[in-house]
Amino acid sequence: MPRINFHQQLAALKDRLLGMAALSQQALEFSVEAYVSRNGGLCTHVLDIEKAINAAETVVDEMAHDLLAKEQPMAIDLRFILSVIKINGDLERIGDQAANIVQRAMLLKDSAQISLPVDIQTMGEKAGLMIRTAIQALLEADAKLAESVLLMDDEVDDMNKAVQQELVEVMQQRPEVSIQALNAIIISRNLERSADHATNIAEDVIFWLRGSDVRHNMLLAEAD
Amino acid sequence: MPRINFHQQLAALKDRLLGMAALSQQALEFSVEAYVSRNGGLCTHVLDIEKAINAAETVVDEMAHDLLAKEQPMAIDLRFILSVIKINGDLERIGDQAANIVQRAMLLKDSAQISLPVDIQTMGEKAGLMIRTAIQALLEADAKLAESVLLMDDEVDDMNKAVQQELVEVMQQRPEVSIQALNAIIISRNLERSADHATNIAEDVIFWLRGSDVRHNMLLAEAD
């Protein structure tokens, strides 16, 4: 019964990817918490999670590669494995964004904690929700749910643009807090980029389930 | 003679990817030129190239997918197709970075042109050289050449770090040029990230030729 074995292997691959997704989501959410609360221990923890994500990426890639080589899957199974390979890359990049955020947070440890006109917490929650929703769409094989992620991306993009404008003004008026403002700008971009990766994941879920490539359509005509 | 046909298709896939690589490299090099010379026409041209890159990405992905579905390739051929899929994604993201750079350049059109302690031109040349070298390694199936790209990445990383530090000082001392300094910081990051994509491409070339995954080893232990 080689096909039963094959489907068990596909399920194992999906489980492994979902485990990695949980790590990426956690890394991002912890990174925002670490920045907001200036928690150095949590920063280190995020860097540890990021290492675990990198290790998981290699394992998922090898599993996917082995399945392609040994089973020569067709149609939806092939699309699933190709989607896994791409989602794997996006999850790893979310881990990179989280690592970037805590590296910024660690740079701030000697600067005064000031209030800035930027809500990194809410941006982080929105990006986190997009990642969780994309992953749930993968878990439940739900293309409609994946579509809802694509619609959420604009909100994070708009928040990021607003942050940039407001913080440039802060820099001009209060040069003594330039470092804090710059870090907030960069972290806002890290979150916007994480939301883009969630969007990519949702697109890959749709490709897996429907076989249609939804990237670069009119709905999503924007650069990274 | 199905195998001859198969190898013709692999060659066609490689040609298509190399065509796309030429576009990505061009987009990045033009974007730096457009920023340095404040050339609005060139900015628009880069955005047009980026659209062409996005279209090419979809074509390459479909070709790779068709080959996997119809030919069930093994060993080095399978690794080649998987590498093409990943390189395709990195080339598309280099196009995104180029688009980001010209968007920044366009924001500057009403700001005074000032001298900043940052050599975007040289950073752009280094990132461009990394992309060209990675592509040449792909073209010539040269894993040693691909390895040389990995060593070049540190230089761009170091330049980016230095830029960040120096420009924060500029912001503190000359708040009236905060916008220009911030744009230079962001463009420096775009170039550093483009260099990372070149590194990813080189790693994929090595994986294709040697079958070993060189990501996340000690040499490259850094976050995005």
Distinctive features:
homodimer; 224 residues; mainly alpha; Methane Monooxygenase Hydroxylase, Chain G, domain 1; 6 helices; 83% helix; 0% strand; disordered C terminus
Protein architecture, described:
The structure is a homodimer of 224-residue chains. The first copy, chain A, has one domain: Methane Monooxygenase Hydroxylase, Chain G, domain 1. Chain A is elongated. The first copy, chain A, has helices at residues 2-37, 40-71, 75-107, 120-139, 143-173, 178-210. Mean pLDDT of chain A is 90; it is low at 218-224. With 224 residues, the first copy, chain A, is mostly helical. Chain A is built from 6 helices and no strands. Helix content of chain A is 83%, strand content 0%. In chain A, helix 1 (2-37) packs antiparallel against helix 2 (40-71) and helix 5 (143-173) runs antiparallel to helix 6 (178-210).
Total number of distinct structural domains of chain A: 1
**Helix fraction bin of chain A:** over 70%
CATH superfamily of chain A: Phosphate transport system protein phou homolog 2, domain 2
Largest interface: A-B, 44 and 44 residues
What spatial form of chain A do the alpha-carbon principal axes imply? elongated
Distance between the termini of chain A: 45 Å
Structural class of chain A: mainly alpha
CATH-defined topology of chain A = Methane Monooxygenase Hydroxylase, Chain G, domain 1
Major sheet attributes of chain A: none
Quaternary organization: homodimer
Q: Residue-averaged pLDDT of chain A, rounded?
A: 90
CATH class bucket of chain A: Mainly Alpha
